[in-house]
Structure formats: structure tokens, C-alpha cells
Amino acid sequence: MSEVRLLRLGPERPTAPVVVCLPHAGGGAQSFRRWARSLPAELELMAVQLPGREERAGEPFLTDFDELESSTAGAVARAVAGRPYALFGHSAGSLIAFALARRARRDGLPLPATLAVSSFPAPHTLQPRALDGVPDKAILDFLNGLSYAFSNGPESQPDLIREILPVLRADFASVSSYRHAEEPPLECPLHVFGGSVDRFVRPAELELWRPYAGREFTLHVMRGGHFYLHQSTARILSVLAAHLTQQPITEEV
Fold first, then answer.
1. CA dist 223 → 148, 190, 208 (Å)
2. Total Cβ atoms within 10 A of residue 54
3. How many other β-carbons are positioned within 10 Å of the β-carbon of residue 34?
4. Around Cβ 216, how many Cβ atoms within 10 Å?
5. 21-35: average pLDDT
6. pLDDT confidence of 135, banded at 50, 70, 90?
7. I need a labelling partner for 18 at 20 to 30 A (CA). Which of 34, 119, 190, 237 fits?
8. Which residues are known catalytic residues?
């Protein structure tokens, strides 16, 4: 089985609390590279890098959610090495972040200081769907509706399409293999983020995450669509920093 790795984005701070980011379907660790500019000096920034993308292109994908969760949990535990940490997952990365927090509790390991999920439906509302027979055009049309990565429509960037479609299919397959189980609410704070005009998950749907919070729950709806976070990095990090350093950072304009 291919192993999940964590990449450090920004300076190495061996004793600092860690913000661990999990990217969207089809994405890689570098999608969080710019976050290092807004991170306070008291924190370290890392991002999960799944096999088969960016510098790991050509490696076998992880398409089974249980295997992906297990490998990611091990990688995160080694990387944070007992330090306080926050988990932030965007889109499909939210499901992995949520599963990691639950797994830490089951394994008797420290929970994240805060769990943050972004632009993804509550786990109990997911409808498993096989994607083997879904044509490429249907996937591309869906992505184009989310203002994904295509400046002039997906047909204008054939090289990007060839690169990203296999990654997307692998990530969608792993999400489709997730099977939800009822467990008690999490004891760590849960922060849910989303875009005001997201076509994939509406703000009202984000509210359905509330039952998973046993303690603090907050919902942050920000201006923008599914990828609102590129314009709201400082605000997101200020929420995470508050739980890791007790010194919220100043938001960028």
C-alpha cells in the first residue's frame, strides 16, 4: 500500500503546535503553500500529500477510504509527535479530517486542539455513488460549475484535464467507499467553513455538522464559492490559531 506523507510548508519549528491541512479531491499539498504567508511565527504548517499527485505523480492511488484513513493517521501522528495540532480539511479533505479525529479518540490518542471542515456535506448525509461509469464530461462539467481550476472552461486546458482526471477519479472512489457509523459527538471544538454561493454545499447544509460537536461549534459562511478559502486564508487561520496559541493573528485585507 502506498503511504501518505506530510509536507512542511514554511519554516521548520520542531516544538511548535501544528496546523495540518488536507486538500480537496484532485488536489495536493501545494494548494496550501500560500497559507505559510499568513501563519503566525508560533505555529508550523503541514499538509497531507496523498500518492499519485504533484511530486508523487505515478505512484499508485489510495482508493479505499479505510486504508487512506489508516495511512494518514499514522503520518499525522509521526509528524505532530505529541504536539498540539489542528486539522483543517477542505472539501473531500473534510471527510478525512473528521475521520482522523474520530480515529484518534478510538485509539486513545490526543484529539486535535480544533477540527475545522470546509465546503463539504455532513458525513451522515453522503450518498455512496459508483463513478466507474460516469463519463469524463460529466465530471468536468461538475468541476466547471464549482469554478474549479479552469479559467476558460475545462476544454481550454487539455493537459490539465489529462493530469487531473485520474486523480479525481481516485479521490472520488475513496470518498464513495466511506461508510458512516454513529459515534458520540467529538470532544474537540468543531468549526465549519463554507462559501456563501457554493454550488456544491449550501450554507444551510453546513449546519448539519452541528450534532458532531460535543463542545464548541461555529459556522463561518464567507463570501465566495466552493474555493472561497483562497480569499479567506487569514480569517480561517485566525480561528485555528486561537485554539493553538491563544493569540489570534491579524486578518489580511
1. 16, 20, 20
2. 15
3. 11
4. 11
5. 94
6. confident
7. 119
8. 91
- In order of 6, 48, 142, the CA distances from 72 in angstroms are 9, 8, 27
The 3 state secondary structure assigned to the chain is CCCCEEEECCCCCCCCCEEEEECCCCCCHHHHHHHHHHCCCCCEEEEEECCCCHHHCCCCCCCCHHHHHHHHHHHHHHHHCCCCEEEEEECHHHHHHHHHHHHHHHCCCCCCCEEEEECCCCHHHCCCCCCCCCCHHHHHHHHHHCCCCCCCCHHHCHHHHHHHHHHHHHHHHHHHCCCCCCCCCECCCEEEEEECCCCCCCHHHHHHHHHHECCCEEEEEECCCCCHHHHCHHHHHHHHHHHHCCCCCCCCC
For the chain, the residue count is: 253
Q: How far, in Å, CA of 155 to CA of 137, rounded?
A: 10
Other CB atoms within 10 A of residue 58 CB: 8
* Residues pairing with 86 in the sheet: 19, 114
Residue 43 has φ and ψ, to the nearest 5°, of: -120, 160
Residue 251: the pLDDT is 43
* Beta-bridge partners for 7: 47
CB atoms within 10 A of CB 211: 12
When pLDDT is averaged across residues 184-196 and rounded to a whole number, the result is 97
Contact call for residues 86 and 25 (beta carbons, < 8 A):
no
CA 123 → CA 56, 120, 218, 235, distances in Å? 28, 8, 17, 25
